[in-house]
Design goal:
This protein is α/β, with parallel strands linked by helices. The chain has one domain (63-255): Rossmann fold (3-Layer(aba) Sandwich), CATH 3.40.50. It is 43% helix and 20% strand. It has helices at residues 2-10, 17-34, 45-57, 65-69, 86-93, 105-117, 130-133, 154-161, 180-185, 187-192, 233-236, 239-255, and strands at residues 74-78, 97-102, 123-127, 143-148, 165-176, 195-203, 212-219. Strands 3-2-1-4-5-7-6 form a seven-stranded mixed sheet, sandwiched between helices. The radius of gyration is 19 Å and the shape is globular. The N and C termini lie far apart (69 Å).
Amino acid sequence: MQKLTLGLSDLGMRLTSSQVEQFETYYRELVEWNGRMNLTSITDYGEVQIKHFLDSLTVTLALTEEEMSKTHLSIIDIGTGAGFPGLPLKIFLSQPRLVLLDSTAKKAAFLRHVVEKLKLVNVEIVTGRAEEAAHSPRYREQFDLVVSRAVAELSALVELALPFCRIGGTFVAQKKGKISPEVDRAGRAIDVLGGRLEQVKQIALPGMSDERYLIVVKKVGPTPDKYPRRSGIPQRRAIQEESQRESSPGELRKQS
């Protein structure tokens, strides 16, 4: 795990020997299970260290010292897939309650296996969709930190993620590429859902030339009960578009 440890050193962080061994085990299980199911297209030892493990841990750069040291920090990872960024964060921070949410049962089976193999405690694997889980009292507005590396448009992603975040908590989305237009389009949704855009932080990974960002949203007010909307709707129709649709009938009546 030399590339991971060196990359973390550049960020002012370090791993214990037991954490290094946990990441080694995670890598071995990831590659073995990837032969049976499509978990990731990245399997090279060095690339996994940088593109999966180190990239996941850059989320900590968006956290305050208070959040990092919080004994009872609670984290949910939306659309976690093979466990990124949630599991690397659990290995590194040790203490948090972690919920890994994914809609694919096969991936959930892999996650349960890895959690058991790594002897991690206080980790819950949930198979289901965020649109449904976010309406459960068990998960709604229960988390200090909501994270996602999902590829959904940010305006849809905040609708799926912010309902899980407690007031005062933080949502961190990991994004790549030219993200300014996407952030602008998500502005209305962030406001409606009780969030406030805190920062857009550019991240540099060793040997990676692509643009990577952490989109950090603070939860400052409650999310209206109707959000998130039914499965698939957030991806098809942004909250901004919905607001325009709702205002149209009134405008028509005014004209008539």
